[in-house]
Design brief:
Blueprint: E1 3-12, E2 17-26, E3 29-34, E4 41-44, E5 49-52, E6 54-56, H1 64-71, E7 75-80, H2 88-98, E8 103-106, E9 108-109, H3 110-119, H4 124-129, H5 131-134, H6 145-160, E10 166-168, H7 178-191, E11 195-197, H8 213-224, E12 228-230, H9 233-237, H10 241-253, E13 258-262, E14 267-271, H11 279-284, E15 292-294, H12 304-313, E16 318-322, H13 329-340, E17 345-346, H14 376-391, H15 397-410, E18 433-436, E19 457-462, E20 465-469, E21 472-473
Length: 488
């Protein structure tokens, strides 16, 4: 279907163009950009901003329900690259069978490969077990030489099956031998794929850590030449963001392929059994058990004894961890610093939506009441635009689309050549387009009500198919396609 977006402010970070013109979508591609274009379907977008849809490198949402929240936030491609899924072939098959509003893709899961070899958790259980695997200590130890070779072989097999690089949850196994991380980096360099790492603790937090988390990335990038992505630098750096960003900048200045992402929230979400939720580790971070809120019940943990009880009873239970106080000007400035860092990519770390009856999926829209998740699932991109463009005026719209669309797409160019059609609006680009109201774009999700959709996304096209029209979700639209790596 040919669709003409007429009279909008077109922002293309691929060419640097920012001006009023028309965009013609045809056959799932951008067919033309300019004046004097015609089509049977014309959408008046005067006064609105038209740009390439947002590419989220860090989404743990694997449901229609969750992706609909992300669609209302301007996302057209949602990728699980920090954790990944295993087996990769099953992950793609199940997503295709269920249908997705957005494009999707997965990395090879370092933690799942280790869980199979070190803890005997079968690969078919990885997708179903989710956060429960992260809270299982059996896979978090160092490997023998034989075990290392075994799980590296599994990772390599996932790359051959089309994984978009290697997702490394090092922060969930922070005491492991550093040589193992270096071995993964060497594998990534040989295969020509990126790594996406949740780093281990910083030395300021735990002087006994085998190696500082951020230093580990830059050393591995320099030694191996691998492209290495530092996930959610805001949450893993906390009050030490100055030192971490300086470390990464020095590495990039020396020519290493190190990239970084951030999201605009002062609380994270994970499994309560995660290594860094241990009461003693919280204390090292300057946090306490009361910084932890159990997602399903809303319980704010009272003390260390109660936290240990919860971790023992259900280590996979999702929780919120407050690491910065967004009401505190100093902490708010640290969040701003992570977003403002040159070339920092916006990524959500979106989490699944849960209901108390056990559901993690629904085709109802609006979503049924009582759903719980982290507000970043629904609001990361709109909140970032509100903070950085509308309120602070620090980013132009061109810079905003560069951070949300162009830079994340370019990170994937080598592993998945199909990504070259994303993140820009040149002729032949994928027709993944967001049209937003620059005056009203904002998040509405809160920690108390986390499934409220963002406002201001007026239209969203995924492969040329409208998923949002006039600010309303089109519930019958499931045009998402897989983004896969080339076999390695």
């Amino acid at each position: 279907m040919r669709t003409l977006l007429r009279g909008g402010r077109v922002v293309d970070p691929g060419t640097g163009f920012d001006g009023v013109t028309d965009v013609l979508l045809d056959g799932g591609k951008v067919a033309a950009v300019g004046s004097g274009l015609e089509a049977a379907t014309v959408v008046d977008v005067g006064g609105l901003v038209v740009g390439p849809g947002f590419v989220d490198l860090h989404s743990h949402v694997h449901s229609i329900a969750g992706q609909r929240l992300q669609a209302m936030d301007g996302v057209t491609t949602a990728l699980d690259l920090e954790a990944g899924l295993m087996p990769i072939e099953r992950a793609y098959t199940e997503a295709a069978a269920a249908g997705r509003p957005l494009h999707y893709g997965f990395s090879a899961s370092w933690s799942a490969a280790r869980a199979q070899v070190l803890a005997g958790i079968e690969p078919d259980a990885q997708i179903e077990s989710g956060l429960a695997v992260l809270g299982n200590p059996a896979w978090q130890r160092s490997s023998s030489a034989k075990e290392l070779a075994a799980w590296l072989s599994l990772v390599e097999g996932e790359l051959a099956a089309g994984a978009l690089g290697i997702g490394i949850l090092m922060g969930y196994a922070p005491a492991t031998e550093p040589g193992e991380f270096l071995a993964v980096a060497h594998l990534a360099a040989r295969a020509g794929v990126p790594t996406y790492t949740h780093v281990r603790e910083l030395v300021e937090v735990d002087p006994a850590i085998p190696v500082d988390g951020s230093e580990e990335i830059v050393v591995a990038a320099a030694e191996t030449g691998a492209a290495m992505h530092h996930c959610h630098v805001n949450s893993t750096s906390g009050h030490h963001i100055d030192r971490v960003l300086a470390t990464l900048e020095k590495s990039r200045g020396a020519g290493s392929r190190v990239t970084v992402e951030a999201y605009p929230y002062g609380a994270g979400s994970t499994a309560v059994g995660a290594a860094f939720i241990d009461p003693d580790r919280l204390r090292l971070k300057g946090l306490s058990p009361s910084s932890v809120v159990i997602l399903e019940t809303g319980e704010r943990v009272a003390d260390a004894a109660r936290l240990r009880q919860l971790r023992d009873a259900d280590p996979g239970a999702p929780c919120i961890l407050e690491f910065l106080d967004e009401e505190n000007p100093r902490d708010r400035a640290l969040l701003h610093q992570a977003l403002a860092f040159p070339d920092s990519i916006v990524a959500s770390d979106a989490m699944p939506v849960y209901w108390k009856d056990g559901r993690t999926e629904t085709t109802e829209w609006p979503l049924p009441p009582g759903g719980t998740t982290h507000p970043r699932t629904a609001g990361t991109f709109a909140k970032t635009l509100r903070l950085m463009v509308r309120e602070a005026g620090e980013w132009s719209w061109l810079e905003a689309f560069r951070r949300c669309s162009h830079l994340p797409s370019r990170l994937l160019d080598d592993v998945a050549p199909a990504a070259r059609g994303k993140g820009h609006l040149g002729v032949g680009a994928d027709a993944d387009v967001v049209v937003l109201d620059p005056a009203t774009i904002t998040d509405t999700a809160t920690y108390a009500d986390p499934t409220r959709p963002s406002r201001g996304v007026r239209h969203l096209y995924v492969g040329g198919t409208p998923v949002v029209s006039d600010g309303e979700l089109r519930t019958g639209a499931l045009p998402g396609k897989p983004l896969r790596g080339e076999p390695r």
